[in-house]
Amino acid sequence: xxxxxNHDRGTWWLALPFGxxxxxxxxxxxxxxxxxxxxxxxLLLSPDLDTHSLPTQRxxxxxxxxxPYRKLLRHRSLLSHSPFLGTLGRLGYLGSLVLxxxxxxxPWGAPTPVALVHWGQLVWNKHPVLLLLALIGxxxxxxxxxxxxxxxxxxxxxxxxxxxRRCRHRAGQGxxxxxxxxxxxx
Length: 186
Known about the structure:
By secondary structure, the protein is an all-alpha fold. It has helices at 4-21, 23-43, 54-58, 67-72, 85-105, 113-126, 128-149, 158-182.
């Protein structure tokens, strides 16, 4: 498992090459979007937000927003350290927080949750390719993190591990029974 500084180093080193991959297809705007999303994903929206980590500290006073997330998820759980699901969970959590906070702050002039959702739809309709590229950049940085940790497909859920052990156990019993029938030891 890589340290926080190794994760950061990998993010900084690979953000520009990742952005340059998009240059031939989407020009400098696509390249900048991809590189920036990769940096944000690795430095601010890391899978390690489920611990007291460097990405958590980078949020400054807003790191308190991630406290419930840390308390709800075990470190390196399926919901934080898995491809696609981890990034989706972090974005969903952050989006939910923004909508709830905007609901509380609307009486003091903040945009309402409905206005934020409407704005999000407008941005999606106007720039779908750039938003998809940003999502791909966030996910790519999560994959880098998982690969550095040595678990690109995350830990196997306990239920699957239990079933896997049970299947291996049954297969071993079958081999022992076959060996008894032939007089050989397994």
